[in-house]
Amino acid sequence: MTILYLSGPGCHGGKILVVPLEGSHWVNMDILIRALHDRGHSITVVRTTKSWYIKEDSTYYDSITVSVTEGFDEEFIKPILQKLFDIERGKSSALNFFSLQLEAMYFIPKSVDHVCLMATTMFEDKALMQSLNESQFDLVLTDPAWGSGIMLAHYLQLPLVYNVRWITTGEGHLTLAPSPLSYIPLTGSGLSDKMTFSERVKNMLFYLLLMAQNNMILKPRYQAVCDKYLTPKVDFFELQQSADIWLMRVDFVFEFPRPTMPNVVYMGGFQCKPAKPLPEDLEDFVQSSGEHGVIIMSLGTFVSEVPSDITEDIAAAFAELPQKVIWRYTGERPSTLGNNTLLVEWMPQKDLLGHPKIRAFVAHGGTNGVQEALYHGVPVVGIPLFFDQYDNLLRLKERGGAKMLSIATTNKDTFLQALQEVLHEPSYRENMQRLSRLHRDQPMQPLDRALFWIEFVIRNKGAAHLRTESYKMPWYSYHSVDVVVFLLAAVISVVVISFVVIRYTCFKLLGMKKIKHE
Amino acid sequence: MTILYLSGPGCHGGKILVVPLEGSHWVNMDILIRALHDRGHSITVVRTTKSWYIKEDSTYYDSITVSVTEGFDEEFIKPILQKLFDIERGKSSALNFFSLQLEAMYFIPKSVDHVCLMATTMFEDKALMQSLNESQFDLVLTDPAWGSGIMLAHYLQLPLVYNVRWITTGEGHLTLAPSPLSYIPLTGSGLSDKMTFSERVKNMLFYLLLMAQNNMILKPRYQAVCDKYLTPKVDFFELQQSADIWLMRVDFVFEFPRPTMPNVVYMGGFQCKPAKPLPEDLEDFVQSSGEHGVIIMSLGTFVSEVPSDITEDIAAAFAELPQKVIWRYTGERPSTLGNNTLLVEWMPQKDLLGHPKIRAFVAHGGTNGVQEALYHGVPVVGIPLFFDQYDNLLRLKERGGAKMLSIATTNKDTFLQALQEVLHEPSYRENMQRLSRLHRDQPMQPLDRALFWIEFVIRNKGAAHLRTESYKMPWYSYHSVDVVVFLLAAVISVVVISFVVIRYTCFKLLGMKKIKHE
């Protein structure tokens, strides 16, 4: 068995311009940037004065800070999350769905405006653009959930690589690969790949809503920036599809099987590594759990607190268990807290998930946490809060590795029952262990695959041969509507003409006969 | 850079049942079988008493010989090829196209009948089926251009891996992955991925013809065997799509970019290896060419002779060149043969293509030869004869690596002109060298990738998680026709009801007013 790519052929010392997205997306991008730095590439990160996670100073990247007056920062995102959270808890599920959509209608234009402001500020800064041009980067690496990196790559005429899960039009695949709505559930729909008729109707309606949102909210904003700064004139959605390589943050152990394209490279779980030893005090706490083992709970980066009534219920439920619990929690200490529960402000989540004493993971269903649970084969009790969290957890649930609770109905009893089920029904653990085995059974580690393809783009100045240009066709040609109409017209013409000719001939013959008879 | 899979985790000593296809398809399968044998797997090959390429005795596989009275052997195939050849030469291109289709209508049922006879004979042989059942194979490896392996795998309830380029419904992808006819040219259509309106009409008509052929010729024959021997009742085309892994004998350096599926593994060029040194006499001949270098010519396994007038013209053209020529040719010695041309019955084609003195390859466009030219970066003068040869060469031509001639118009002048162009216009060689670099720039050798995924299926008893089951949906659900009709009906109902209500209300109001006025 020969592997062509052990230390990697050439192309060390590439120059990579990174246009990242904030929050958990940056957590991902940062891992990729460190790995690229370790392989000898020089990295320049574009951030804004309002950047929140993305620091200006770093030992492994240079940064360019774009000055903006309005930002996608903590003050911007926290109230939105709080509102989503309230909606999630307050109403019936049908009302929820529409309230959430309405909230999105407010949230999305605000964030697109921010991205467009960032892009405009860059393009207006002639000195910056000249310096970027002169820097002769090899490629732009961006998270296309934000469009600024896409437009910048086009401006600088550089190859484009995505670190992607979402784009403006939804889940990354949706724009790129044919996605029959009959078995590709849209994100946010809460559906699986096996749908009933009414679920398929819901999926279709959701798609129509998404398309309306794209064409009415996103397109005009991005297109205005394209029209002003990019020549020759280019359609933003075409630009979005023209990336050389899409490094997709899923794999098919996690995602339902679906059509894909040759330039999509799956790197789901690329952030996962074997667990490192725990700090001594934490290891002591974990070992004190004995045969019962440990449960860990975290609701992600954004949400350190949930409303106090739920907190009290969760703490009370934990207190009834023989397991030890480590809970990432920064709010007021719940009065019902048991002796078995350790509250922490931060925990080495990846290393805990890989510890042999771990029995279950209570999680909100962010992509990173779900991938890490899957990598280590730990069963999950999921409390999805917003965004893609429900859909992420659904994928584990469908494979029998997770139990899901709704935040609206979570109380001591439901929570305790869910935990007991996941702890005592062996299938949850067995299924997660099976997924873990499948995920690890790959010819190459996902991060190595991602690095290979980034360097492939540097070596070959793009990956045009992997990229269809069918997106440049008008929709009626792409879907062969013009051809079908033409062929139908041809068939109808032939039928009509034949009918007329036959009728005329019969008439003539009959006429002749009549004359003869007379 | 860590590679997970250097010596391969476990699963040596798998038991693999191979149901191959004859001719050049066997040449491919044989390479895979030898590699599997070298990795410690035991192989059993199913052949028939009429098998032509597939030998009964081998040092690296056991064989099972199915006794059939009619076979897909030399006597069967040669007259068909001769007829195709005559059509190809004799008529205008439009007439050609229809004559070839008519010939296919005769050829296809004959070969399907043969495959069904093979399958029926196997299923009727109770002792054989019992022994296969007891042998506890790990998987069936088959070339699905023939359906017998597919049905056998279902009968034995074994995981299924394809070594595939063609299936009964055309190019392997066509059934499996969504294939918009607007940019996916059907094989045999002679079209590229960028089509004019009239080319798209041709592609669509070709598709309709293919579907008619499938449903009228193939389906009834295969389905009859399924209905008789397989329980529970199963649809043959569903069975065909249910394979765990499709090892596809193309890659996207060769093939136009197109949608694909997660369980398709590309192994195009898996048969290619660095060239070995030539036999001494051949090396001497090659070296005697000096700075001018060598041209090699071969029209593949099936066709050792072309009509004598063309042979005379080709020989005369070669005689005018300063290059040396090695020509695989078994017919009568052409009278116009120059001193620079060596006629051989067989040549080490792969090693010659990798020789630094090689300048051009005159080829018929079989997949194996085209892939080898691409691997070694040698420009091609192509004379396609039949089957997929035109389409194979078209892919090189579109990338600027080949010049194509039609057998109908090949004479001394056209042939010489084509050769001169390929020899003296540097872009042909540059383009083939570029394709070669792209093809070799992979994280893993194609053969290793194929072996990995075969062993993955052994380790995990299939690859269900990579396989969509959407093919089980009725076509109107798959294409959301039912959903669209339902939604349209709903919209129309709302409009009609609103109209009626408004009309009724207006009428009432007007009526009231009238009454008041009166």
TrEMBL record, chains A, B:
Keywords for this protein: Glycosyltransferase, Membrane, Transferase, Transmembrane, Transmembrane helix
So what does this thing catalyse? glucuronate acceptor + UDP-alpha-D-glucuronate = acceptor beta-D-glucuronoside + UDP + H(+)
Q: Which residues cross the membrane?
A: 483-506
Q: Which InterPro entries match?
A: UDP-glycosyltransferase, UDP_glucos_trans, UDP_glycos_trans_CS
Q: What is its EC number?
A: 2.4.1.17
Keyword Nucleotidyltransferase listed: no
A Pfam family that this protein carries is UDPGT
Q: What is its main location?
A: membrane
Q: Where in the cell is it found?
A: Membrane
Q: Which CDD domains match?
A: GT1_Gtf-like
Membrane topology, from the record: Single-pass membrane protein
Report the GO terms under cellular component: membrane
> What Gene3D superfamilies does this protein's entry cite?
Glycogen Phosphorylase B
**The keyword Manganese belongs to this UniProt entry's keyword annotation:** no
What molecular function terms (GO) are annotated for this protein?
glucuronosyltransferase activity
Q: Which family does it belong to?
A: Belongs to the UDP-glycosyltransferase family.
The protein, known as: UDP-glucuronosyltransferase
